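Human: Here is a favour to ask of a fellow structure person. Comparing notes only helps if you start from a blank page. Give me a protein, with the fold worked out from its sequence. Please set it down just below, with no commentary around it:

Assistant:
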Amino acid sequence: MQLLRNFPALWILCLLSVSLYAAAPDLLLLKPYRPGMQINGWLMSEKLDGVRAYWDGSQLLSRQGNRLHAPDWFRAQLPPFKLDGELWIGRGRFEQTLSIVSSEQADADWDQIHYHIFELPQAQGGLIQRLSKLQQYLTRNKPSHLHLIPQHVCRDRRQLLQTLSQVEATGGEGLVLRNPLSPYHTGRSDNALKVKSFEDMEAKVIGYTAGKGKYAGKTGALRVEIEGGIRFLIGSGLSNQQRSDPPPLGSTITFKYQGFTANGIPRFASFLRIRPVLKY
C-alpha cells in the first residue's frame, strides 16, 4: 500500500532518470570493401581513428547515446542541425582523445579536440548536397574546432590502393568510400565502405592466460569470444602496460586479422584497442 501511495513520486523520478539519457542514435555503419566492387567515381576520405560523436542539434552523444560533456564554448560552435563525425586530435592519438572526451567535467583539454564531420543525418539529397549544407555554415560562421572531412573522387582501384598506402604509411587507419548519389541511410549497405589493408572485428574478453619468459607475472594472452560463440586467444599487439593492466573481463576489444581458419577462427589476430563505452 505504501508503494501505491508513493506511485506519483516514483513515476516522476523514473521520468527524470530517463530524461538524463538519450536513446542510442541510429547511425551509418560501414561494410568492408571487397575487390571487384564498383567504386569508380565514388567519394574517398580518410577514416579517422577518433571517438564517434553524434550532434543532435543541442547535445553531443556517444554511439551508446550517452551525453559527452563538451564545454559550452565548444557546443556553441555547432549548428542547429544534426551532425555525425569523429572527435579527433590526430593520427595515433586515440587513447588521449578518449581520455579527454570521457571526462564528466569539461576542461581546458577540449581545446585539443576537433570535430570532423562526414555526414549530416536526415539531410536531403546525395552526399555532396548534404555536406554542402555544412560547408555553407562553415563559410558563414568560421568555427575553429568544426571541420568537414575532405572528400576526393576515386577514379579507380589503382588510385584507391595508392591512397590507402600513403595514408597507412603516415599512421592513418584506412579509407572510407561513399556512393555520392546515395541518399542518407543508417545501418550497413554497399553504399558506404571501409578500406584497410587488414580486416578488424570486435570480441568480448572472457579470460586471460599467464605470461611466460619476459612476460612472467603479466598477461600472456586474452581469451576472447566472437559472434557465434567462437573462442580463441589474442596475445599479439598488447603493450607492456596492457599486459600489466589488461582489458577487464566483459569488455569489448577491437582486433585485426587476416581471414579465417577452417574452424572459423580469425587468423593472425592482433589486439588494437578497447572499444570505448562512455558512461555517465
